[in-house]
Amino acid sequence: LSLSLSLPEKVRCFGIRPDAMNAPIIDPLQGDFPEVIEEYLQHGNMKCIAFNRRGTLLAAGCADGSCIIWDFETRGIAKELQDKDCVAPITSVCWSKYGHYILASATDKSLTLWDVINGEKIARITLQQTTMHVRLHPGSCTPSVCLACPLSSAPILVDLNTGSSTVLPVS
């Protein structure tokens, strides 16, 4: 499992101390980490996050079942996605390839596909187990297939159009 994020320049470039530029010896225990918190993005209790492909939007799954989308350029909330049928904490969020859709999994065993622009729920599917991690298939413009990884069983391929699921064999 690997994680790669593309962060805006403002976030990436504030970790080096100016006095360290002239230091003859660099402390090996001093990492290239931010020393100052620039600002907070707050809106309740967040459980999981995912940047879009460009790194301009950040989706956060909340403990109340909502999904908040922050615009990193304006530092404001761009959209709040709330399903009245889901009040369970979100366990995973995933952007579609072009950033038009978000898939969220929750502790109530549900998967919800959202249209980000309209703020509309496109599909809601309930599985047999709680999904800890979910990913949309990257090959299509309109998401139709996802991979759901439950806590204690094999990964599951889920057709978001029909709701059918296939457990993948693990050897």
Automatic annotation (TrEMBL):
GO terms for cellular component: Set1C/COMPASS complex. WD repeats lie at residues 46-80, 90-124. SUPFAM superfamilies: WD40 repeat-like. SMART domains: WD40. Keywords: Nucleus, Repeat, WD repeat. It is found in: Nucleus. This is Retinoblastoma-binding protein 5. It comes from Anthurium amnicola.
